[in-house]
């Protein structure tokens, strides 16, 4: 079984895969033109959706494609085929996403930026810090990554609430509500963490109407997808004091254009889509596990339902 490996980090992935399975038949490239030539001889593809979407568009497709990204938006374009098996990267982002979220929650409570400013001004700042204990945290998107973030946050004594496509009971959340309840829960949350995927149903959710319901002391963290936020409405909400601040990891256009208002928005910190990078050793393990499942005719981890977009 020949595997097409299409990754900018392909040398590292090849070393990891061959160390674990020396007989694996790998065909490797990160050049779109070369990939289109190699693809017809490979029934399994492993790599970046952005690279391989171009190959799909040329009329080639695999039996199974393992994405190295959690998001598979480039593969959902209307002109691309969907009659092949596609799996997302799952089970490898929970801890790194939790570390990202926790970093900025703790920085907010401990007022790290204000203390840095005080140091620059040579002003002794010894006012008492705040704590995460008792804070209400709303995680919008309670799938695998959202649940993992919640599990990491639980020991800090926060009250956890979630929003999903439907009501469910899910520990450690006190409540997981449907999307229709988002305005009610936002109005009670000290932290609103967006982890929703990019689907038609998740566009423009965070608009002026919703931001007006935020607590003025709340911090908004978007590590899901940029299309969930109406950019101008967030900038205005920050300026008008509807929320205390925003940590924005993902944007509608990346890299962010130089003239975009996010660069200079009051209370907004950009983190450059760095929240949860793919860790090659974990990704290699996931692929090899799914490869064995594929050979054995077993269900694949992270298989995508094209009708849902995830």
TrEMBL record:
Annotated transmembrane regions: none
Molecular function GO labels: NAD binding; oxidoreductase activity
InterPro entries per UniProt: D-isomer_DH_NAD-bd, NAD(P)-bd_dom_sf
Residue ranges occupied by any D-isomer specific 2-hydroxyacid dehydrogenase NAD-binding domain in the UniProt entry: 103-274
The keyword Transmembrane helix appears for this protein: no
SUPFAM superfamilies for this protein: NAD(P)-binding Rossmann-fold domains
Alphabetized UniProt keyword annotations: NAD, Oxidoreductase
Matching PANTHER family: 2-HACID_DH_C DOMAIN-CONTAINING PROTEIN (PTHR43333), D-ISOMER SPECIFIC 2-HYDROXYACID DEHYDROGENASE NAD-BINDING DOMAIN-CONTAINING PROTEIN (PTHR43333:SF1)
Protein name, UniProt field: 2-hydroxyacid dehydrogenase
Source lineage: Bacteria, Pseudomonadati, Pseudomonadota, Gammaproteobacteria, Pseudomonadales
